[in-house]
Automatic annotation (TrEMBL):
The keyword Oxidoreductase applies. Residues 7-348 form the FAD-binding domain. It comes from the Eukaryota. Its cofactor is FAD. It holds the Pfam family FAD_binding_3. It comes from Suillus fuscotomentosus. This is FAD binding domain-containing protein. GO terms for molecular function: FAD binding; oxidoreductase activity, acting on paired donors, with incorporation or reduction of molecular oxygen, NAD(P)H as one donor, and incorporation of one atom of oxygen. Keywords: FAD, Flavoprotein, Oxidoreductase. InterPro entries: FAD-bd, FAD/NAD-bd_sf, PHOX_C_sf, RIFMO-like.
């Protein structure tokens, strides 16, 4: 890893920039990551973490997000002008984890804590965020990018190979690239949001409290223990409130909350606040030459913006790493924009529809569609995925679909399977398929009735670089494994049939699944020739 002169400059150190940097570092690519703010941002901000993002953090080994993120509390609505409960509802109905979906359901974690966790993971690679460092401009050529940076009024010229702009809705990277920024700013759905410390008589911290409505005036208070044992994330909203004025005054925030919450309140501290207007926009493309945009820099939006942003970064990271290592052609990077544009376009349609329904009603609007779990997001349409079991009929792109566990194509999310028995080791042990998938290599799963059936396929894979391609044989529970002499990195017995079920395998069948470093099924093929055909579009030929 060239730590002296990093080949990638990441601009912006929110979760999107941090995930981009961490993905590259785990791929052995050193990065320089900067942020124009002098101090790390505070505030809960976007708190929702959906299942597809929880899987991403699992693949990155960021286990703290899995363990510390909490289910959202039930939302308590009140009769107007009273502390009398109207109804209790849940943001998202509870769903149990399953063998194929171990990280099911919605979780919440403040962005301030998420940033801290991700920065700690960067530090394991001796990489830290350079705060108070601003990108002023850049120029690119076929060979690289020259960036002009500024810190404490001192200018610096920095030569690098690539730039990733994760610098938010006002992105200097996007503006300098001149990307079209299509969409609208919603003036009818603005709010004041922030973190506050207060106590109120009868205000139970087991609930997310909601007073009033969007049509008139309203207040939302979600308990946030990360702020303190009296901490809340608040939203003030409604057409009858002068929100731009409220956002300029701590006194007005306190007064407005007092007017909307009919109980005795003791204010401790207004920690942070911001005036928020939904920006429903997206770029026409995610890159130009050696410079990329991700997250709010490409598509600022409420609802799923942060989740979509870290998924942008994860999609880009492994591709950029292969190109920088000289293992893939630069054309691979064109698939970043091609795969993410349809997803974001459809995502904006879904979240805008939810916003419209919320805005149009005085009544509580709760019950999120399972499409928001993001498990059905796919790139079946991508030029670099290969499925030999699907007839090539022109189908409409449905990139932001609902998960159908009875159907699996190349381009879909790869399912998990637990209790896979590892054989051929001194001490056989159980593992999961998700524990095999990591951001720095492809995983080839050879499902076969026996080791003998898998061996010819595995022999042909030995030409691939082991640092970026690994293999595992998946045998049915009925397989008797007496001796394990196999060119595969792992031999697994599907003891409980979870893998055969999730990957829709039939008894006696031989089939190969190539899992990309981002946890997407890159290929579903019959055997060796299919694997070679898939990698011919990914890796430079040996």
């Amino acid at each position: 890893m060239n730590t002296a002169h990093p080949p990638v400059l990441v601009v912006g150190a929110g979760p999107v920039g941090l995930v981009a940097a961490l993905t590259l570092l785990q791929n052995g690519i050193s990065v320089r990551i900067i942020d124009k703010d002098p101090h790390p941002r505070i505030g809960q901000r976007g708190t929702g973490i959906w299942p597809r993002s929880r899987e991403l953090y699992n693949f990155l080994g960021v286990s703290e997000v899995i363990s510390l993120a909490k289910p959202a509390p039930p939302i308590r609505f009140y009769k107007p002008g009273t502390l009398e409960s109207l109804e209790d509802a849940v943001l998202v109905p509870h769903v149990e984890p399953t063998p194929a979906i171990p990280f099911n359901g919605h979780r919440a974690m403040g962005q301030q804590l998420l940033d801290v966790i991700l920065r700690r993971h960067l530090e394991k690679f001796s990489c830290s965020v350079e705060m108070g460092t601003e990108l002023r401009s850049f120029e690119q050529s076929d060979e690289g990018v020259t960036a002009v940076l500024a810190k404490n009024g001192i200018s610096e010229t920095f030569d690098t190979k690539w730039i990733i702009g994760a610098d938010g809705a006002q992105s200097i990277v996007r503006k300098q690239l001149g990307l079209t920024f299509l969409g609208e700013t919603r003036d009818d759905a603005h709010a004041v949001t922030g973190d506050i410390r207060l106590t109120g008589v009868g205000l139970d911290r087991l609930y997310w409290h909601r007073f009033g409505n969007w049509k008139e005036q309203g207040l939302s208070l979600r308990p946030a223990d990360e702020i303190g044992d009296d901490g809340w994330q608040f939203f003030l909203f409604g057409h009858e409130l002068d929100l731009t004025k409220i956002a300029e005054s701590e006194k007005l925030v306190f007064e407005t909350i007092t007017s909307l919450m009919p109980t005795e309140i003791s204010f401790n501290k207004l920690v942070w606040m911001s005036y928020f207007k939904p920006n429903i926009r997206m770029v026409n493309k995610f890159s130009e030459g050696r410079v990329f945009v991700a997250g709010d820099a490409a598509h600022p939006t409420g609802g799923q913006g942060l989740n979509s942003g870290v998924q942008d970064a994860f999609n880009l990271g492994w591709k950029l790493a292969l190109v920088q290592k000289g293992l893939a052609d630069k054309s691979l990077l064109e698939t970043y924009s091609a795969e993410r544009l349809p997803v974001i376009s459809e995502m904006l349609g879904v979240t805008t529809s939810i916003l419209d329904k919320t805005m149009a009603s005085k009544e509580p609007q709760i019950g999120r569609n399972s499409i928001l779990f993001m498990l059905g997001i796919n790139c079946r349409f991508s030029t670099i995925v290969l499925d030999e079991f699907v007839t090539s009929v022109e189908k409409p792109i449905n990139a932001y679909g609902v998960l159908d566990e009875g159907h699996l194509e190349a381009g879909d999310r790869a399912p998990d399977a637990p209790n896979m028995l590892q054989v051929g080791r001194a001490e056989p042990g159980a593992t999961t398929l998700f524990s095999l998938y990591r951001p720095w290599y492809h995983t080839i799963l050879v499902f076969a009735p026996s080791l003998a059936d898998a061996t010819p396929i595995l022999g042909a894979l030995e030409t691939y670089d082991k640092s970026v391609v690994r293999s595992a044989v998946v045998l049915p529970s009925s397989a008797s494994v007496t001796s394990v002499v196999s060119p595969a990195d792992l031999v697994l017995v599907d003891q409980e049939g979870h893998a055969y079920s999730a990957y829709l395998m039939e008894a006696g069948q031989t089939k190969v699944f190539v899992i990309r470093p981002d946890g997407v099924v890159g290929a579903i093929v019959h055997g060796t020739e299919g694997v070679k055909k898939y990698f011919s579009k990914i890796l430079v030929q040996i």
